[in-house]
Every structure is written in structure tokens, then in C-alpha cells.
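Re: the 599-residue chain
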Amino acid sequence: MSRQDVLRADENRLNGVVRAFEEIALASMEESMELHLVLQAIGRRLIELLQISRCTVYLRRGDGRFACHAGWSAAGDMGHLVSRLVSGGDRLTKEAVATRKPILAKDAVNHPLTDHEAMIHFGVRDILAVPMVLAGEVIGVIYVDNEDRDHTYGTAELATAQAFASLAAIAVRQVELRDELDQHNAVIQHKNQQLRKIATISRMLSDATLKGADTDDLLTLVEGFLHRPVVLYSADLNVLAWKAPSSLKLAHPPALPQRARDLQVVRQLRSAEDTSPALLPSLPAIGSPHRRLLAPIVVERRRVGYLEAVEFGRPFVDLEREILDRAAVAIALQLQTESRRAESEAQARSDFLADILNGERDSDSLRRAATARGISPDGTYRLLRVRYGHGDEQRHTGRARRQGLLDLLSERLDLDGLVDTSIPGGDILLLEERPGIDLAERLEPLRPDLEAIGVLHLVLSLPQVGLVSMSAAATELRDMERALLELGARPQLLRMDRAGVLQMLLQDTGIGRAQEFAVTLLAPLLRTDQNDVLIETIRVFLAVNCHIRAASRTLGVHENTVRYRVGKAGEAMGVDLNDFTDAFKVRLALQVHDLLPPP
């Protein structure tokens, strides 16, 4: 072959490479063209250029090896036969990668660089490994061979294979970059969709809160968003409310088991500064087989509760974490709004009670104001004056002190909507009388708990019909409290319905004279009565209006025993307890004595 023929053959071969690359390049720029189709086209065109029958295209993986992505033979697509093949461990591939040049293995079954078993399995005769080099990096390897006859690879064919592989590498990277961009755009589009959904959900939650939705309404919305059970907990992880899809047919809330609260992961969640939702693992050993997302509910920097979503069925996705976080914020806002509204209403009721006690409202104004605040102007009420001990003045003060008192009375007396106002050293509460309930009898057992929060004395007024007479009743309570303080009385509940006569005595004689009167009259009896048997007997005797038989039944002793004790007590004091005047004196003395601190 003349030099001119050689040049013409090289030119034709180069033109073939350019045309093949042009086809591959155009295909790689089509948005609908997937990578494996481009690789198929590369294999098909290289077969035509080299006039051989089979080609496989491998691309580099993250671990440095090469995975087969396409295969083509004279019979057509053979990708299904080779798609799981991986190369890179054989010496043929390693040398092609190291030299970045085509490596030919003649008589492949026996060649020292090849995987002999693979060559036998695929019936390979001669094999050429062509690296796809881009910017000095091998991004893939193309293997070409004849499966039915030997093929002679000349220098020109090796150069053609190398040139085409390098140009094909550009097309491959173009497709990869396009796919990466598409994936990136898809991620951005997905995130934008999520952000729009989160914004829509946030707006729905905010709108519901502004329209007066309560906690139950918000939980219903959240359950509808997530299609999962949602549970609202207090700060102590006690269930406050819950919602679940009806399809689950849950009879009870899927709450966090009590034992889980002592686990380290739960303790860390409750103490962590981070307030974003946390994922709790399934804990089947303690009865919690489902994963949980738990979001703290924070009001004024205090954790007032937790909102939880429980993983039934499909696993959690990131969007749900965001939804739960926004829902926790909405519930926190709702709780804060409710708290401030309640505080405002409580303050208005407190101011109203202060006006009543000071007698600063006329009858018509009082009725209007009471009705506006949910207080019946014609109801029957008692005033409870609460005095705090000086020793607890620093620990139990202001709102915290009053709230502790209100919480205790509300819970233990089952009273709602208590109205109270502060006074120096104490509080005054307005308690509504209810049929069949003796407030005084229910208050008495609470004295230890009340003393634990700093309460010294309680003075309970007589029942008052309507609100007009409250000012006078408040004055009586103030005077009686002052008497208790002047006497240094032991902590107690003083009922005005049992202190009327005592009140008269104190008004007539004063604190000092009343105390002197009681001590003088009772001192001989107290010296004689070492076990308080006599004084207890005369208490009961006077309480039943001096009836021997009634006192006998109450004390559980014989009537003659009562007579003997009453006579002995009267003898010690120098009085006749069957005489009305003497009995009245002793009754007054006992009332004063009961107020005095232990000797």
C-alpha cells in the first residue's frame, strides 16, 4: 500500500471516529437519553470502527473498581448478560488503567494478564482493554473482542480505539453531569415542594390557633397531616390528649411506657438544650415496639410538654420531623395564649374581688361586673382569709405562693374558677357554697398540706347570700385574724360559724382580758386533769347542750361516768356546769383556750 493509500485510510478512519463521536455527543445532549443508552451507542460504534463483533463498557465505581453498564454484540443488546459484572481485579485492567493505553491480550484464554475462567465462559479469543481517559483520569474501560474468529489489531486500530474512547469519555461525563444536575434539580424541587407543604401546614396551624382552636383541634390537624398517632404529654410525660387514624382502631393512646422514662436516651432528651424533635428507637423489651418522634413544647423558655408522633407502618421521613416541629410551636403558642388569657381573666376577677371587699361598687355596678366575669351576683359564698407564716415569707411569696394555694384547693376541694385577691401577708378567696358540701369540714384535713406551703391561719366566714355583704364579712375575718396573731394562736382553721360568741367576748373585753379570763377559769381544771379526760368530757357535754345521755353516747361511756366527770370538772373550776350562766362562761373559756399555743 502506497503512502498515499495509507494517508487516505487514516483520514477515513479519523473521519469515522469524528462521525461516531458526533453521534455519541449529540445523543449525550438529549435530555431523554439515559446513560446506558449512550454507553450502548459507544459500544455499537466502536464495534463498527474496529470491525469486530462484541463490546462491553465499564465505568469506575467509588471503590476504584469498574462496573459493567452496557454490552453490545453483532446479535444486539447483551446488557442483561453482563450488567452484574465487575472488573478491576485482573491484571489486564490494572495495566490498562496504569498505562492509560489500550492493552491487547492475544489468545485470551491462555494470556497471563486475563481472568482465564471468564475468558473461557464468554468464549473470548483476543481481547482489547481500552481505557476511557478524561483529564488524566480513567473513568471507565471498554473491552472489545471477537467471539467467533481471531482478529488482528494493528497500530492504526489501537490508535482508533484510544481516540474514540477518549472522545467517548467526554460524552459519558456530559451525561453524568447532566444526570447529576437533574438529580440536584430534583432534590431542589423536592425540597421546594416540602417547604411549600411545610409553609401551608404552618399557615393552617397558625390560622387555627388565631381562630381559637383548642389543643384537641390542633392534634386533629396534626394527625391528619401525618396519618399517624400523635400524643400530647405534660412536662412529666403524662398523657394529656391523643389522636390516631381511625383505621388503626386504637382503644388506648400508644404512649411511652412508664419504664422508658428512666432510660438514658429519654433523660438526655428531656435535659437537652436542643428543642428540635428527637427520634426514640423502638424498645420492645419494655413495651414500646414503635419508633417515636418527640418534640419539646417550649413556652417562655420552659418545657411545658412534648408532642409525639408514633411510627406505625411506613418509616418516618424528614418532612414529618419538620411538621411535628411546627405543630409543637403552634401548640406552644396556643398554650401561651390560653395561659395569658387565663392570667388576664384571673387578674380581672381578683381586682373585682378587691373592689367588693373594699365596698367600692354600688349594687347595680356590682351585678353587672360580676356577670361579666362569670360570677353569680345572687349566689351564696364564703370568704376564706389565708395568713402565711413569717418563716416562709421568702419561699412562698407573690404569684408562686398564691398559685400553690389555688392549685391545692382546686384539686382537693374540686373547685373551679376560684376568685382570689392578695392582702398584706396573705390572700382572700371567694368560695361558692354548694348544696350538701361542708367547706369547713373539707378544709380541715388539708391543714397539713396548707402548712407545707406556708399557711399559718385560715379564717372561714359565715355563708353570705349575694355579694353586697362581702365587705362587712371581710372586716370580721380581718379582726379575727388579728386576734389570732395577737394571741400567738397555734396554726388552725377558725370557722366564724363557731366563733360568734368568742367574737363578742373579744370585742367586749379585748384580747388580754379574754386570755386572762380563760386562763384563770380553766387553770384549776388543767392542773387536775392530767390526761385531758375531764376537759374532753365537758367539751362534748357543752356541745350537746348539757344532755348527759347524748354525751354518754358520743363518748362511749356510761351516763354515771359522764355525771361524775362533769361534777369533778365543775368542782375544780368552782362552777356548776348544769347552770346556764356557768356553762356559758366555761364555753367561752374553752374557745379562747383552743386558740392559745401549747403551754
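The chain has 19 helices and 18 strands.
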